[in-house]
Amino acid sequence: MKKTLLFILLLVFKGTLIIGQVLPVGDLELDGWLRSRQLMGVYDSSISFTIKPLFFSREYTLGKNKDKDSLELLQSLIFGKQILPTLRESSYFGLLPASIKIKFNSTTPYGWNDEGMIPAKGLQTELSVGVAYTSKWLDIRFQPQFVYAGNPQFPFSNSYGAKTNGVFTKVFAGQSFLKFNIGPVSVGASSSNLWWGPGQYSALLLSNNAPGFAHLTINSNKPILTPIGNFEFQVVGGKLNEDSADGRLYENFHLKPATLTDDWRYLNAMVLSYQPSFFKNFTIGFTRAFQIYHTDLVKQGQGFFKKYLPVFSGLFKKDVGGTAEDTIPRDQQLSLFLRWVFPKSHTEFYFEYGYNDHSYNTRDFIIDPTHSSAYIVGGKTLIPLHKKNRWLEINGELTQMAQSVNYVVRNAGNWYLHGSVLQGMTNEKQILGAGSGEGNNVQTITVSRLEGMNKIGITIQRIQNDPKALAGTLGNLLLRPFAWTDFSVGVLYRKQISRLMLNMDAQLVNSSNYAWVEGNSKTNFYSSIHLIYLW
Fold it and tell me: Which of 385, 465, 482, 487 has the greatest number of beta carbons closer than 10 A?
């Protein structure tokens, strides 16, 4: 037994210690750029893109990329510019790129995946800059974010929205962390956004839709190589905040401020991703999360492991005390995912399927596999054009979070909202996962032309806003009679001009039966501009 454990440790921790940093989740265009480089065959195929932020060592980026231009850009984005001499060559102290994001909605709140920015009408801005120190054993990043939003009043109804308190300003810890590295494993504290799962535009459990939450983490900082394949993982225990008095829109639109408590919530979550050595370019994994109010957590008489690390408990209620699990006031989400890359055809396919409730046992799962379920399915393909380094990129993604038809006889609540935690799976009033809205269905298609870092394209999106929305409490099965649907058409633009990077998204959004009011049509102009300056 001792020899077996020693052999496993040698496999996991073999190799030299290297210095590194992460590429924050904060800009999906950069993530999409790297995914496209991977499909082109010029970026490391061992990266699964299912656990983010992505970790990079200086040695790794130098050794694994075949394209000099993308390598230099990647190094500047991740490590910044060295501003102070260090005592050893194996350490680095850098000034991180300066970032400004500007978001505008002319009529109604729209758009997501923007960290500290809030769902609001009008103009808002997010500023960010920071410093990073890295060595063989230690990684430190201090990268706060400042958000300003005009937050004027927007149209609302009895089912959606409320009066705002006007101007909103806040400083978040942002993409900051302190981590100790032991080979391919890191342990530390962080406020960084996390993105779990293979989705390009949405993730079922964790994304960068809400501000990052304070958490302790143990995670892989690069793929862990074993004879049977590569593993990546992360386990976190964190604090989700709530302030019912700050006048922001509640993304959980079934609730009014008077029904909520300001008690913070404890979140325990994990993700595991596996790339088999016998099945190249294929990734499979799962995520799981529990949340509970702090006051209820304190009352739990269970041992430390069951109390603070419930993600390692049994999957079925039968395995964790049967119906006794329902007496613990906590909510669960879990998902299974896969990503399959086809390098020769420059194509990828991915899928994520999740649940927001336990099945009682295997029989219950087989009889009713769609109960409390949601899923994301999508893909990307690149078609080489005649001119060198030019590609046609086609992306598509479907996110389905409305309840399945069996909700009439077995209601599970909308995805992210199961019952014990009134806010649902949120932080600072914003959904931690798919930010289009709880219970929503989204269809997205983009077609773009790529040339190096530069990109220009069109996007088409349709959102069914909670098509099976309940009129009142979870037990009330009266449907809203009018379907609220958003349809948008827009342009995407990405350009690098010397040390300046520009990402832009502009869409014209038409809402029919806005806020579930018959005949209430709204037209909204949405735009998002992200500027990054590389020192």
Answer: 465
Task: Write the DSSP string, 109-163.
Answer: ------TT--S-SEEEEEEE--EEEE-SSEEEEE--EEEEE--------SSS---
Residue 489, classed as helix, strand or coil, is strand
The count of C-alpha atoms lying within 13 angstroms of the C-alpha of 339, restricted to the half-sphere facing its C-beta, is 27
pLDDT in tens, 452-506: 889 999 999 999 988 876 544 444 444 566 789 999 999 999 998 888 999 999 9
Instruction: Report all structural domains of the chain as residue ranges with CATH numbers, in order of start.
Output: 2-533 (2.40.160.130)
The span from the CA of 433 to the CA of 113, in Å, is 9
Pick left, alpha or beta for residue 89 (phi over 0 → left; psi -120 to 50 → alpha; otherwise beta).
Answer: alpha
Give the span between the Cα atoms of 464 and 486, in whole angstroms.
7
Give dist(CA 19, CA 58) in Å, integer: 6
Global pTM? Answer: 0.89
Inter-residue contact 506 to 490 (CB < 8 Å): yes
- What digits encode the pLDDT tens for the residues 338-374? 999 998 999 999 999 998 876 666 666 666 667 778 9
Question: What CA–CA distances, in Å, run from 482 to 488, 516, 518?
Answer: 19, 6, 6
The structure tokens listed for 402 are: 């409305």
